């Protein structure tokens, strides 16, 4: 097959136009093009009102070798790359490998281990996804938090109630991201995620996809245990090796290989790991608020008259401002046509995040507007001081919201003027169980308030309407990534404990669903290799 890139067509082109563009680019007769599939479809919106679609296609042709030779010096014509994932060969050991956590990292790790014949055991502290959905909605509808079953904890992990954006900035020369996407499509994700430039799935489908993947893992001999937390590690020897896991039901599970994929909110597990002597480092993350605008305003600012076109979908944005106090302010986890959600996992705290359905049809666009924080500047005391920093501001947000899981909110005009909001305007906040108009400086560090005050007018210059007076800010966004990193060796293991494989977002190796899934594959491959080359025990 031959890949053609950079085929540019108007937004409203008809079906024949793409075929015509291929034939013209290759300089061939129509009959020579046997078939083609779209490898990628993006858009170029740099000229507002004149947006063009940009395609890459894979073509099956008569005499491909001669055509490639003829176009040898044309960078946009090349052989189609091989993106097939090759499963490593595995030798089952005496003990089954364990995956701790059933988020995207743990689930992809377990799937690879199961496909390799290693029959993994998945330990997940939360509930199966349908039961978890009921608990999550109880917080949103009735202000009832279940600390072990919520937006952060339970089958599917933190990304289950999300926009399901599947972008990753990670370098991926082995096409592991493609493997994640293909497994997602097999589990029910829309096929277009394999070729659109900004794929997303939405919450509704994510729930059933997680169930499908569980069914496949179980059919291959894997096993899930829900409602059980890993509370301790059993180790032996020098250098130390993992020999088992202490579970919250009082039992010990024997294993010599465990993938630790616990996400960024497993604060009690971080503490347990620290006490068990697992090496860890404090790392930067960000703090800020969610902002909500009418989606129509964002569509118009980004796409002009072409806003609302079905091939463009609801518009997104990505913004960065370097503030004069040395802080970077940036938009985070933008959710077009979505809602702001309550995302705490601990009692008496308020944490915001965003989600949407596949249709992205809700009235508001939302995004985190967050400011970078680092251990050196902001929480130097201790390796887990970042957790204490997050908790401090999450509790302040709980108090500012009224102490009943409503979130503190403020109109942009009031925030910029430094006065509390007493009422909200035209933009109706989507956060459930509700918001309290107030002063967000009560629950943000002063440097973050200053930096965001400076950033909003700067963002207005890039996106007309961004600092509209009635846009709503809701606080507080604290869980943008893990506050710690667990170092690992070239073989993917903790340098302090052979057999423990830290992975995913909680360990500091991922920042989203796709990158967590990719890291899960890597961790599974390391376990497969370690299984083949057992360490000497004497
Ligand atoms: C509301 C929301 C929206 C988001 N939207 C997007 C988006 O659109 N796109 C995107 O790419 N990313 C999004 N993210 C981020 C994304 O969800 C995470 O980056 C991703 O889930 C990280 O995957 P993970 O598997 O490393 O960890 P997690 O998904 O956090 O999974 C960790 C799992 O481990 C379990 N666990 C924790 N401790 C233990 C223990 N001791 N024993 C047993 N089990 C344990 C937890 O219950 C959890 O299920 C969103 C996050 C949230 C909260």
Automatic annotation (TrEMBL):
Domain FAD-dependent protein C-terminal: 284-480
Organism this protein belongs to: Asaia krungthepensis NRIC 0535
Protein name in the entry: Oxidoreductase
Domain FAD-binding: 98-125
């Amino acid at each position: 097959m031959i890949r053609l890139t950079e085929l540019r067509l108007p937004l409203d082109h008809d079906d024949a136009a793409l075929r015509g563009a291929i034939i013209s680019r290759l300089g061939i007769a129509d009959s020579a093009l046997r078939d083609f599939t779209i490898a990628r479809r993006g858009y170029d919106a740099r000229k507002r009102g004149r947006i063009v679609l940009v395609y890459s296609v894979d073509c099956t042709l008569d005499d491909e070798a001669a055509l490639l030779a003829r176009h040898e010096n044309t960078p946009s014509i090349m052989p189609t790359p091989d993106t097939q994932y090759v499963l490593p060969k595995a030798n089952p050991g005496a003990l089954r490998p364990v995956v701790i956590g059933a988020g995207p990292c743990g689930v992809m790790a377990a799937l690879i281990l199961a496909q390799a014949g290693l029959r993994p055991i998945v330990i997940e502290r939360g509930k199966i996804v349908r039961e978890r959905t009921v608990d999550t909605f109880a917080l949103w509808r009735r202000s009832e938090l279940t600390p072990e079953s919520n937006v952060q904890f339970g089958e599917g992990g933190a990304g289950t109630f999300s926009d399901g954006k599947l972008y990753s900035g990670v370098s991926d020369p082995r096409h592991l991201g493609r493997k994640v996407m293909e497994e997602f499509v097999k589990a029910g994700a829309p096929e277009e995620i394999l070729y659109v430039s900004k794929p997303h799935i939405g919450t509704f489908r994510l729930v059933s996809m997680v169930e499908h993947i569980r069914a496949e893992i179980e059919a291959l001999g894997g096993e899930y245990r829900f409602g059980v937390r890993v509370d301790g590690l059993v180790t032996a020897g020098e250098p130390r090796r993992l020999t088992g896991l202490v579970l919250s039901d009082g039992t010990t599970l024997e294993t010599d290989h465990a993938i630790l994929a616990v996400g960024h909110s497993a604060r009690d597990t971080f503490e347990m790991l620290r006490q068990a002597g697992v090496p860890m480092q404090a790392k930067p993350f960000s703090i800020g608020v969610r902002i909500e605008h009418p989606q129509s305003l964002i569509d118009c600012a980004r796409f002009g008259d072409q806003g609302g076109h079905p091939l463009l979908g609801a518009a997104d944005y990505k913004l960065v401002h370097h503030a004069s106090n040395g802080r970077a302010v940036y938009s985070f986890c933008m959710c077009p046509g979505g809602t702001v959600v309550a995302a705490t996992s601990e009692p008496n705290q308020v944490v915001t995040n965003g989600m949407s359905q596949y249709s992205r049809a809700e009235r508001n666009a939302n995004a985190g507007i967050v400011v970078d924080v680092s251990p050196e500047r902001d929480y130097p005391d201790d390796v887990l001081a970042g957790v204490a920093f997050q908790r401090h501001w999450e509790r302040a947000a709980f108090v500012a919201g009224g102490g009943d899981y409503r979130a503190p909110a403020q109109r942009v005009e009031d925030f910029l003027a430094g006065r509390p909001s007493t009422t909200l305007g035209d933009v109706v906040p989507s956060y459930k169980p509700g918001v309290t108009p107030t002063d967000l400086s009560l629950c943000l560090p002063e440097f973050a308030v200053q930096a965001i005050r400076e950033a909003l007018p700067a963002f207005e210059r890039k996106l007309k309407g961004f600092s509209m007076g009635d846009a709503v800010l809701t606080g507080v966004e604290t869980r943008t990534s893990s506050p710690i990193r667990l170092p690992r060796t070239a073989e993917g293991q903790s340098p302090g404990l052979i057999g423990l494989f830290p992975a995913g977002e909680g360990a500091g190796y991922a920042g989203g669903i796709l990158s967590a899934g990719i890291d899960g594959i890597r961790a599974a491959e390391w376990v497969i290799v370690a299984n083949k080359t057992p360490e000497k025990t004497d």
